[in-house]
Amino acid sequence: MELSERKKRILSAIVEEYIITGEPVGSKFLAKETGINLSPATIRNEMAELTDMGFISQPHTSAGRVPTILGYRMYVDHLMGEYELSDSERAAYDELFNLQVGDIESTLEKACDILADITGCASVSTAPNDKAATIKRIEIFPSGLRSILMVILTSSGIIKSRICKTLENLTPDMMNFFYQLVNDRFCGLKLEDMTEEFLDKVKHELYEYTFALSPVVDAIAEELRSISNEVFIGGASNLLAYRDIDGDKLIKMMKLLEHRDELMRIIGDMESGVKVKIGCENGMPFMDNSAIIAAPYALNGRVCGAVGIIGPARINYPKMVSSIEYFSNMLSKFIEDSFGD
């Protein structure tokens, strides 16, 4: 939908003032305070047309106008300017470079905490979901007479560990045999190639240890399959500070943060650049006054996950878009330096 330059200036001014104050914006304010060189009457006429077009609405008969989701969308896609992060803002994000962590999952958890603290929003990050990722090593240790501690390392830097029960007492020969078998069969295997047929073949090669160790093979597969569904959350309580999101919808949003599959659906499809999803664009009616801003991060030159924030629709889009872009680029660099091939 094409807008005249006059309407673009008025819509942009309404969005930016409403983001700051949360109050409806009137024609007198626009004529006096924003540098729009038009009379209040002319501005009112333009506002009436913008209302008819669906970009703004009038909450009360005597009130000014507020942006609609369509108005925010137009602003984000075509009207907002670029925001340049200050040195102090960049320094705050650069704290990520000082992380002392042992694996990529801990890095992402801490990254979410940093992002939530700085933006004042809830933050979310998906674990690497690199289909080309491979299993680098599997270590196994006896942790009891009938239990094994397994530690799995993937090429994307993820470490998974779990204690598994066996169905028979462990022996040194059994442990040596199993260690050799799982590393021969799993190491170098792409995660996407770990099919049921492959697992059946591994179990078949257990021979006399099939009964005892088949559950451990299943546990290895279960841990590896869980990688692509992992989501990390930070600052969920930040959402409580936003009066724009009413109680019932806030409760549903808090519950959303507990449903990893839904979060994966919302932000797990990032391929390039910063994506902004406003209101019901997120596919959930209770998010009609919320926004998600997210961007992908990369490892070994491939996009493998996403990081972003969840907040109100009335959010400083230029600043948040620049922040997420900078943060995702910085996160990619840190992960590449720490966990890349």
From TrEMBL:
Indicate the segments forming the Winged helix-turn-helix transcription repressor HrcA DNA-binding domain, all copies. 2-74
Its lineage reads: Bacteria, Bacillati, Bacillota, Clostridia, Eubacteriales
Q: Give GO BP annotations, semicolon-separated.
A: negative regulation of DNA-templated transcription
Q: Which UniProt keywords apply?
A: Repressor, Stress response, Transcription, Transcription regulation
So what family is this one in? Belongs to the HrcA family.
The protein here is known as: Heat-inducible transcription repressor HrcA
Q: Name one Pfam family in it.
A: WHD_HrcA
Q: Write down the superkingdom of origin.
A: Bacteria
- In this protein, which residues make up the domain named Heat-inducible transcription repressor HrcA C-terminal? 105-321
Organism encoding this protein: [Clostridium] cellulosi
What does the protein in this record do?
Negative regulator of class I heat shock genes (grpE-dnaK-dnaJ and groELS operons). Prevents heat-shock induction of these operons.
Sample GO molecular function, one term: DNA binding
